[in-house]
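in:
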């Protein structure tokens, strides 16, 4: 079984994009930048104090040849970005003075690079919170046309199992208690993410503790309402619900609980009813099922900006760079 991340890296190398990393002074980021540049996964931009970046690279024996180093406050684009941020946000109370300070921040500078086409994507979050990473993204890059919310998913690879395949789990990191409308948006975005990253036909299961009406509750009604919204909006999506997890994954259980379903027993995109379930679910698979998780992957932004877990390793950041590059390719 070829690892999905190796295939994603191959695709990233075939259409090399410029990916900006604002947290250059974290050694994990620096290691990942060196590896990604060396492998040809992306053209890397590191933001921060250039002297300190070069000193840290030398200290750790890292080759950063070919990587673009930018100190935001000394950049030739600093004033351009200050004016650009002011124009983008002046109706929300932005002033030139405030923009002048914000553009000194590496994350804001990096997001502006993406906004104005000077980079194709951004990866951040090794030392910053999700809010620190995504707030500037939402304010500057904003949502893609037609998207009503921004959500996240995790790409999971499950080897050595009767359920061996690649999965998308969503939402595992952003929307705590989605409404039916939000849950439908999560489902549609996750369908497209699976198709883009895995390259196979997505089969979506809207998960619950009930299968096809076996229980009655308000939270189950939310899941079925979301299912109906997806069916109304996207007749190209293969989706069913509500389904219990065993019915979604196991063909024997599916034959008993949902014998007419086109998804049950074959689901590869699992849409959880809330953030708590999704986050617990993917971490159970990762820890107890020997799964490998890539993400969180942000969905719904106009341009690819991805968050990292603060507990990430350098190899996780390389994977995030490759995923962001493939998202930026639009293929």
């Amino acid at each position: 079984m070829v690892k999905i991340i190796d295939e994603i890296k191959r695709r990233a190398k075939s259409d090399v994009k410029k990916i900006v990393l604002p947290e250059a002074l974290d050694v994990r980021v620096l290691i990942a930048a060196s590896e990604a540049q060396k492998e040809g996964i992306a053209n890397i931009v590191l933001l921060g104090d250039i002297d300190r970046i070069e000193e840290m690279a030398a200290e750790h024996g890292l080759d950063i040849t070919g990587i673009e180093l930018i100190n935001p406050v000394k950049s030739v684009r600093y004033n351009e970005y200050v004016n650009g941020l002011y124009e983008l946000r002046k109706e929300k109370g932005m002033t030139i003075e405030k923009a002048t300070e914000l553009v000194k921040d590496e994350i804001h500078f990096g997001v502006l690079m993406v906004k104005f086409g000077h980079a194709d994507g951004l990866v951040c979050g090794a030392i910053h919170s999700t809010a620190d990473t995504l707030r500037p993204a939402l304010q500057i890059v904003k949502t893609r046309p037609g998207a009503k919310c921004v959500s996240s998913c995790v790409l999971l690879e499950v080897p050595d199992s009767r359920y061996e395949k690649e999965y998308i789990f969503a939402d595992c990191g952003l929307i705590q208690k989605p409404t039916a409308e939000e849950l439908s948006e999560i489902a549609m975005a996750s369908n497209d993410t699976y198709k883009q990253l895995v390259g196979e036909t997505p089969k979506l299961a809207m998960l619950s503790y009930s299968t096809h009406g076996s229980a009655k509750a308000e939270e189950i009604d939310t899941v079925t309402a979301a299912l109906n919204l997806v069916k109304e909006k996207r007749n190209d999506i293969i989706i069913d619900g509500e389904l219990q997890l065993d019915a979604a994954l196991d063909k024997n259980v599916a034959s008993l609980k949902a014998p007419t379903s086109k998804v049950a027993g074959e689901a590869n995109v699992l849409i959880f009813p809330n953030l708590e379930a999704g986050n617990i679910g993917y971490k159970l698979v990762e820890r107890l099922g020997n799964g490998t998780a890539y993400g969180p992957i942000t969905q719904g932004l106009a341009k690819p900006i991805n968050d990292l877990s603060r507990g990430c390793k350098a190899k996780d950041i390389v994977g995030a760079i490759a995923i962001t590059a493939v998202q930026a390719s639009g293929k």
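note: The longest strand covers residues 151-158.
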